[in-house]
Amino acid sequence: MTIAWQLLSVLAFFALTLGTAFFVAAEFSLAALEKSGIDTRAESGDARDRAVQSAHRKLSLQLSACQVGITITTLITGYLAEPLIAKLLEPLMEAVGLPESTAIVISLGLALVIASYLSMVIGELVPKNMAITNPTATSRFVALPLLGFSKVFGFLIRAMDNSANAIVRKLGVKPGDEHAARSSSELEALVRNSAREGALDNDTAVILERSLSFGELSAEDIMTPRSTVVTLGSDDSISDLVRTAVDSGFSRFPVTAQGLDETIGMVHVKQALAHPVDEHESIPLSSIVRPVHRVPDSLDGDSVLTRIRSEGAQMLLVIDEYGGVAGLVTLEDVVEEIVGEVVDEYDDASEGRPIYRRGAWWESTGLARLDEVSRETGYHAPNGPYETLAGLVIFALGRMPEAGDVVDLPSDQSTISDELDAGHFQVWQARVTKMDGRRIDQLTIGPNVAASTPAAANENEEGQR
């Protein structure tokens, strides 16, 4: 092997490794791009931006082209590099006194390791990291050459792509472009990233994220639970309706015969206006009730909203698997799942927020769902037989709670690992501050909440100011 041939082989090796790097960078940069940004840049950009748009529109084909390119360059690199490096290492092996046969074997082994290492680092890891870090600039650099490669080797790329699609269909999966559609979880991640980068303001991001996750909720998640529903009896009069509306601040009420499970309909306080005041005491609610619609507690959020709109109803009864009434859903409940708590002129603003910060801790209603708790406080509860913060506290206590009870809250294992790695693991606690009969009405939660006496909380709050 002449020196000129060895030099030429070395140059070819590095050229092919750079070729592998090109296809790896193309693959990762195109896959990391967002379609909306591509279209915007293509409208006002140059030929490179339009090439990126063209490549991204046929993303599946272009990714196949990248795979073909990576395979071709890697195979040729291995064919050239291993014998070349082995040949260069043989004199060194012989110089240390190894027999010729042993020197050849060791040289080939070392050549394989060296060639693989260089190909992996220079040809794959470096371009991958560059493409992920700056996909826009990388895709602008690679788009035009990649389109040219796809045109030249189109027959080979399509043949291999069609073969792969045929196998995928046999497995019962329909092939599709990776960016043809996005799941709700992907869109939620996109919204969070956009808010983190400043492309969306926080309020808009929260509404978008709530809207995307709304369909994953069930009627049971959205409903006002049975224990807090205010009802009227079928024998009650219109005067009772008016008094209850004034006392509770609500305008619609289920009308029951013998308990909520035997609801005969609903009434609205506006119906009192249709009757003379002097007749209010004598008119029973059973004579003016309107029909109330029922939905199963497993119905998803989107379907609940559809039922409310299609039925023209402002209230739905939620039925559990045993046929009993688990609670009710109003249009306000649905709206609040998307935009947050809505407080009108008849509501107590301090009670409008289920969770709010107070010094170093948070005050919460017992009915706050655990996903709301996580979003507001950063505490992540493990999965278990509970949906609300009150249910979690009862589960942790192992008995019926009493005002003043303090309990350590269990933490999700993945959260514990992350906090330990970060060096700031804290035990979360809850204090029951108010009971409503057998139901937990109000709690204080946070790290070391045992110290959350009113005086301590006020001092902490003043200190933060």
UniProtKB/TrEMBL annotation:
GO molecular function, a single term: flavin adenine dinucleotide binding
Key words, A-Z: CBS domain, Cell membrane, Membrane, Repeat, Transmembrane, Transmembrane helix
Main location: membrane
A single GO cellular-component term on record: plasma membrane
Residue numbers spanned by region Disordered: 445-465
Keyword Transmembrane: yes
Domain CBS: 223-282, 288-345
Gene3D superfamilies, per the entry: 3.30.465.10, CBS-domain
Transmembrane regions: 59-81, 102-122, 142-160
Membrane topology: Multi-pass membrane protein
SUPFAM superfamilies reported in the protein's UniProt record: CBS-domain pair, FAD-binding/transporter-associated domain-like
Domain CNNM transmembrane: 2-204
Compartments, record wording: Cell membrane
Family: Belongs to the UPF0053 family.
Protein name (Swiss-Prot/TrEMBL): UPF0053 protein
